Amino acid sequence: MKKNKVLVILGQTTTGKSSLAVKLAKKFNGEIISADSRQVYKKLNIGTGKIIKRERGGIPHHLLDVISPQKRFSVVQYKKLTEKKIKDVLERNKLPIICGGAGFYIQAIVDNIIYPQVPPNQKLREKFKEKSGEELLKILKKLDLKRFKTIDQKNKRRIVRAIEIVKSLGKTPDLVINQLNYEFLQIGLKRDNQKLKEKIKERLLKRLGVGMIAEAKKLHHPPIGKKLSWKRMEELGLEYKYLALYLQNKLNKKEMIEQLNKAIWHYAKRQKTWFKKDKRINWFNPDKSEEKQRINRLINNFLLN
Questions:
Q1: Site annotated as Interaction with substrate tRNA: where (predicted)?
Q2: Binding residue per annotation — 170?
Q3: Does the domain spanning 4-114+176-304 belong to CATH 3.20.20.30?
Q4: Which of 18, 111, 218, 247 is most open to solvent, judged by the fewest CB atoms within 10 Å of its CB?
């Protein structure tokens, strides 16, 4: 049976994934499904770099603004919603284009991973709240050496979740990978480190200039509706964490910008490490004009075969 085609545009932050996805959607009759772990949240717009309507070029974008930021959103929820959207897009005879930098979410779809259904353990989470990442890693190492070796050791939330699963099931189960009736083409965008650093700083300053601080203030002091607590903003990470610290006077503006810029760069390095593991990704440099022709040829061949 011929498999349905799904295109994936991935890469580090500030590599131009969203704009490329829009151009490809116009050229190849596609619709875009976001793979961003924070753009799923409503009202988190400037801080997450969410593509605005004017930039979408009339192309439908899915999996943006699907849940309140007060609630938590898991990879299991993402997988369920994305699989439904892929099916919907294909039924309209359009090309599904998954676009984003959340490698965990993308892998869940591309490899059709079935995750263990373990509910959150709030008592455990409360107990581990004050522990450092190093302390949590020691606990995980003792409980499950295999999971310790594969986990993102900078991601405290994911480490707590792994401990939660081990304590519930006795060990971390092997992820079940099922075959889907889909064929994926993964296109990765990457810049050299110096260029990427420059783009990260430039983009951060631009977002600060168009109201990122005001957005954070409004989230905590909304004119109507439930406010987003400082604690929850810090949990959301990166921009919202450092904006929350600044608005609580725990950092001055200069410190906030410097620390946030550094945190985004470290996040970009973690993205690179994650994506390097997948040898199926076809890499391109968005700063080279000839790369666009190579991308178009690759997609044409993919869709024709």
A1: 125
A2: no
A3: no
A4: 218
